[in-house]
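Supplementary notes for students who missed Thursday's class. We covered one full example, reproduced here. Read the sequence, then the structure, then the short commentary at the end.
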Amino acid sequence: MQFIADLHIHSKYSRATSKNSDLKNLDQWAKIKGIDILATGDYTFPAWFNEIKTKLQPLDNGLFILKKPIAQPDKKLYFILSTEISCIYKKNDQCRRIHVLILFPDLKSVKKFNVKLDKIGNIKSDGRPILGLDAKVLAQIALEINDQALIIPAHIWTPWFSLFGSKSGFNSIEECFEDLTPYIFAAETGLSSDPAMNWQWSHLNRLSLVSNSDAHSPENLGREANVFNFDQPSYDNIYQTLKNKDKNKFLHTLEFYPQEGKYHYDGHRKCNVCFSPQETLKNKGICPVCKKPLTVGVSYRITELSDRQPGFKPTNSIPFKNLIPLKEIIAQVFNCGTKTKKVAQEYDNLIKHGQNEFNILLDLNEAQLKNITTPEITQGILNMRQGKVKIQEGYDGIYGIINVTDSINKIQQNNLF
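Structure (token representation):
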């Protein structure tokens, strides 16, 4: 049986997150999206950990369910204990800013972990705590508490806060985690890269490349996710599947088009400069407008470290599918914003008749889509599936645009005659 898992989100207690990111809303929106296993996020924050303890029911498989679900009570959403830690420290004479996901199978381990971290830094100021702690030491603490702790470097290519980021990262896993490197067997690709980009670097061969939403609001759940094949869901199944890079159980990931990520290309948002890696090299990394160093994005950084040509596919690679959020497709067809009433009404209509967002984006055939929505939205979804898109790359904190409407315009024109 297939299970869609999003292992990295944030609660209402993290900085710049929606006040609606509570357990009931997360449960409701996960079911709207079609997610089966969802991270709790932020378990180091005392108030959120208390909510987790009181409102979630632990199962005997290392997962949890909401005690009183308000949406589709017949459909279970499983929660998994997960948090993101921001480590800011100096190593090898350079300031490092590394974000790391830590997952545990039980509340007892989380409680011990929180007590340890509370003695090291301030875990009460934000849902994603910032600690002056070496990422290796963080991993060591987690593993000493529970040797089944799942340690996943987050969004590994983001320039400012990641394992391989151009501004503060490392050039290898070993440089960061040293003798604990064997315990790092999964890494999160982030919104600005997809597995195919990561396949260009043989250093990542042994890793299970996961994709998660890093959602700061319930509506953004599942914008990236992982599809597993289990007889029954459990923490151990997820742990062992990622550890062994089991292609029979890890079916594929669901990805943003990486160009939509806000750090895909290089540039300066204030100067309206967006460069490909080749253009950055040509300009020697300097902005032609302000003459200051460009913010180097994910594509350039991967090119810098890669030892394979684009298009190379390792034999042990996990497949992936590129998706565009349903509201973005509707908004493009209607030529209006994603938060407008018109888009919300059509989205609700589609969810009502199409079961959930992933089912609509991935599984319904053309005839089924046409039966519940307009020909133009149907064509937009089909264009996405077939990769018939027009791309404007994201850079320096600005999201890119993946447009599916070019061929749709022809449909609309034909309808005029």
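Commentary. The CA atoms of residues 142 and 149 lie 6 Å apart. Confidence is low (pLDDT under 50) at residues 410-417. If anything here is unclear, bring it to office hours.
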